[in-house]
Amino acid sequence: MFKILKYSFFDLTRSSWSYVYFFFYLLLGSVLLFLNNDLSTAIITLMNVIIMIVPLIGTIFGVMYYYNSREFTQLLLAQPVRRSSIFLGQYFGVAISLSLSLILGLGIPFAAYGLFKSSAIWDFSMLLVTGLFLTLIFSALAFNIALSHENKIKGFGYAILLWLFLAVIYDGIFLLSLVYFQDYPLDKFSLAASMFNPIDLSRILILLKLDISALLSYTGAVFKQFFGTPVGTLASLGMLFLWVILPLFRLKRVVGKKDF
Amino acid sequence: MVSIQNLHKQFGALKVLNGLELDIMEKGIIAVLGPNGSGKTTLIKSLLGMVVPDKGEISIAGSNIRKRWNYRQEIDYLPQIANFPGNLKVQELITMIKDLRGKPAREKELIEYFRLQPFLDKKLNKLSGGTQQKVNLVLCFMFDSQLVILDEPTSGLDPVALLQLRNLLQEEKEKGKTILITSHIMNFVEEVADRIVFLLEGKIYFDGTVSEIKSSTGQPDFEHAIAKLLSEDHV
Amino acid sequence: MKKIIPVLLMLFYFTTRAQVVEVCPTCEVSSIQKAIDLADNGDTIKIAKGTYREQEIKIIDKSLHLLGEGYPVIDAQFKGTALTVRAENFSLEGLKIINIGTSHTSDHAAILVSGSKNFRIENNRLENIFFGILVEKSSHGVISRNQISSKAVSQAKSGNGIHMWNCSDLTVSNNIVKSVRDGIYLEFSKNCTITNNLCEGNLRYGLHFMFADNNKYLDNTFDNNGAGVAVMYSKFIEMQRNLFRKNWGPASYGLLLKEINDAELKNNIFEDNTIAISADNTNRINYINNEFRGNGYAVRIRGACYKNVFTANSFIANSFDVSYTGNINENEFSRNYWSEYTGYDLDKDGIGDVPYRPVKLFSYLVNRTPEAIILLRSMFIGLLDFSEKVSPVFTPAELTDDYPQMKKIKW
């Protein structure tokens, strides 16, 4: 697997897309920090970027890479390599290259700004950690979708739809059900509903670092007791981890049966 | 060497292999022929484990290949060049495949043989179809395995290269290898094949030597003999 | 004789004035109460370093100056009030008073000042107390540079740091009050000035006004209290240059205004509070040049608020800038800076060309369905807020800042 990972990764480091993303994050980070000159607004804008753009990029890049490397995959399939190694290797190649774009792209301007000496370092590392998780999750989901659809257009369509669902539609349904059932106790429901969507979960994890005060003021005990504690943070991270693992398991299972 | 029993494969409603049985015990060159959609590629992909059969057994060198992958260590496979990653350089591709196999290889000798030195630093998609195919051949033959599977080895090759390929096949055959070929160039098949396996509708329709085909169809010319085989079917 | 009387008076004055009574654990006078009993009007009592286990020390109608050297400790041993004063022209300085017991029936304090005038309480250290400095029915006093702290756990079992009841013309400055119930408390008191104090980690409020008109508090820091400052049922309060930080928790505020009329807030900074300002039933309040940064809610206006005017404030990175219940009621937002403003300024006059709507649909939703807060800053909410911004349906349409500033307001 590591050999495949290595080749996928090197293949991607030569792809101009990796640099496009890298420079995108670099530009974003620099513009936010040096033009805005205000760390708290910069981090909030960054959060919006991370919970929107990172999943989108992960999805598109994952699907694109899968379809673009079909020939490479064909070549590898005839080699004495385990099937799951090929796909997991390619997956991690994509995920790591995207993660590097993210970390370096945002890390360099922040380091230049002197962030590592400031107290915002923890907010920032939470941003990066969730950004990494979202990259891993959405490229895994993208691989799954691409694997199940030979037709590129369909694959892209479903992948974008999945992103749209998790990023926007899910919250819409969530909000509607909250408003509709507002006469019932809803705190446990909203806790569960936010656990099942990686984007919501990441958003809340970051918010706990930034906007904790507003969260606490109204909804009270349940959120505070859950997300505010180390146990809650660990559970949330565990959930994100599951979101990475489960698609990978499916990937492995489907790959074992598929004809190429 | 290769033993296939009762092989079935269906893609959706389309039956591609329908109880195919094939034994290849001998050394030499075996050509797998058949019209489009007769199951040639599916057969080869089944052998390589790229397609998972619905039913039936395949064993190579005496052991069943189901759910295994390391038996491919002992197979040299020439895919169709359409399925080649274009953004790699020739040398990188060779190094990578060597790295994946982890076996000694004789790529220098073959590069020399096909005069590929000037192209080593070029990316694959910058090369002509014929040169790509030569690279493909180098990748295939450099490991010297006992079983060689060639999918359309002649595609894109000019007459000189075709001659080189024929000589190479001859050499390899003399080393005692089993070589499985699919091709649409009947001249080439006629010249190199020791045995013809003709597929139709997922089954073996004819199995024999070139002269046996000619005699059974009563056609002196190989191409006509094949055409006759097909038309008989439609009668 | 006529010439002698003033001379005698002067002589009398000088001799009494010059008298100093010294107290130390090993001296002839080893008890503070005894020294007080011995001393005459105008005397200074020098208390040497050491521990004095005394309580219910009383200074009644004597103008004395208690001066501790090296912070002598008065240990009240959890029995009643340590020091009670009812006098004019007295001062208490350099004392360390500890261990005041809590009580449900009476307000034991480290220092109780009652019916007094013209006094100074300076540089004292009060630790582990119930009430710190309790001042009642007194006027014209200075309470400054004291350090007061306790270990308050529950509101019922703790007292206030500096408590003023029915007082006037007091100055409370440069004190540090930590971990009591209310840091500084004023009830029925007027013309008091609270400046340069630090109130930190107090259980309920850093500073608390009840029925206390015409007071001002300036340049104070309120850090990490249950709520920074609560101003209730009072008029004409001047609030300037204070810093409200990190007052957060389920029911925390930077500043809680309840039934307040005619006040002015100027140059205050509100940072990282759950709700920076909560205004309930407030009229004619001017908010000028304040900075709201990183709060959950910057301003929450509850019902029955009239003529609250927000001018030239900076709202930076708050989750909600304004939360609003009820009608517009002549409340006004004008010429503020809003970090979330996305408009443009084509004529380059520093004022955005498009009005800003500080109330978002989401804050309206959260008011109705509190659990919806969990969707804070999600993309769906962003879209919702955007569409509401384009065509307001739920939020008061006339609540706008028509002159939003493009740059943070400097002052």
TrEMBL record, chain A:
Protein's name in the database: Cu-processing system permease protein
Alphabetized UniProt keyword annotations: Membrane, Transmembrane, Transmembrane helix
So where does this one cross the membrane? 16-35, 42-67, 87-112, 124-146, 158-181, 227-249
- Give the organism's phylogenetic lineage: Bacteria, Pseudomonadati, Bacteroidota, Flavobacteriia, Flavobacteriales
* The organism's place on the tree of life at top rank: Bacteria
Question: Do the record's keywords include Membrane?
Answer: yes
Entry keyword annotation includes Nucleus: no
UniProtKB/TrEMBL annotation, chain B:
Coiled-coil regions listed: none
- InterPro entries per the record? AAA+_ATPase, ABC_transporter-like_ATP-bd, ABC_transporter_ATP-binding, P-loop_NTPase
Q: Which UniProt keywords apply?
A: ATP-binding, Nodulation, Nucleotide-binding, Transport
Which CDD domains does the record match to this protein?
A: ABC_DR_subfamily_A
Tell me which residues make up the ABC transporter domain. Answer: 2-226
Question: Which one of the record's GO molecular function terms can you name?
Answer: ATP hydrolysis activity
**Which SMART domains does this one have?**
AAA
Q: Hey, which family's this protein in?
A: Belongs to the ABC transporter superfamily.
Name recorded for this polypeptide:
Cu-processing system ATP-binding protein
Q: Which organism is it from?
A: Salinimicrobium sediminis
Automatic annotation (TrEMBL), chain C:
InterPro entries, A to Z: Carb-bd_sugar_hydrolysis-dom, NosD_copper_fam, NosD_dom, Para_beta_helix_rpt-2, PbH1, Pectin_lyas_fold, Pectin_lyase_fold/virulence, SCF-Subunits/Alg-Epimerases
Carbohydrate-binding/sugar hydrolysis domain: residues covered: 47-187
> What would be one Pfam family of this protein?
NosD
Q: Where is the signal peptide?
A: 1-18
**Gene3D superfamilies per the UniProt record, alphabetical:** Single-stranded right-handed beta-helix, Pectin lyase-like
Q: Does the keyword Repeat apply?
A: yes
Q: Which domain of life is it from?
A: Bacteria
| SUPFAM superfamilies attached to this UniProt entry | Pectin lyase-like
**Keywords, in A-Z order:** Repeat, Signal, Ubl conjugation pathway
Hey, which pathway is this one from?
Protein modification; protein ubiquitination
Known NCBIfam families for this protein? NosD_copper_fam, para_beta_helix
- Supply the name of the protein: Nitrous oxidase accessory protein
